[in-house]
Amino acid sequence: MPSSEAAGLAPDALAGLFRRIREGDREAFLLLTRAYQKKVFALAYAFFRDKEDALDLVQETFLRLFQKIDSYEEGRSFEAWLLQVARNLCIDRYRKERMRRRGLEVSVPVDELPLAAAGAEEAVHASDLKDVLSRCVEKLSDRQRQIFILRHYNQLKNEEIARSLGISLGTVKSLHFKALQNLRTLMEPYLGCRT
Asked: What would the DSSP string read from start to end of 77-132?
């Protein structure tokens, strides 16, 4: 059965695979997995920027797919449904990890660090700037952070982001714009500038 990892599977091919999977055909499930694993990986990697975490999420997504395949409504975009499952798992894991880190941290919050006060003539090292950016990105809302990461770390176009997340192009543009505005505000104190 032909499959295209870039484009997914045709609706009639999907229907046949679902029927076979429901009958216990493991090969059909492997075909489905192979057709969509790269897209799920790209989404998971955008969240965690870590290959191992992303691979774990791919496995978790397809395990959930196997468990919930009967809840998929035929006629609906399978790719959008699958990526929503992956996105929800990413958000759940991200929140759990963030709560765990917060419980372990006893340091001063980023917005209270006196980075800019050290003096304008001191250059901000690239690694320091990357660290500040990373910490500021963490402060964005879940949706803004996700769009920012997909756009700037994964180099996806707005159209690709909209398609992979199952949201409108306008929503992607709006969330990206808000993310940039919020990042500018969050980073002002560390860059020693005002806009």
From this structure: -HHHHHHHHHHHHHHHHHHHHHHHHHHH--SPPGGG--SGGG-TTSPPPHHHHHHH
Say if residues 44 and 54 touch (Cβ distance below 8 Å): yes
Find out whether 164 and 42 touch, Cβ atoms under 8 Å: yes
77 token code pair: 């975009």
Task: Give the separation between CA 170 and CA 159, rounded to whole angstroms.
Answer: 10
pTM of the model: 0.54
Please, what are the averages of pLDDT over each run of 10 residues along the chain (195 residues)?
Answer: 52 84 88 91 83 91 87 82 87 76 51 44 52 82 86 80 85 92 85 54
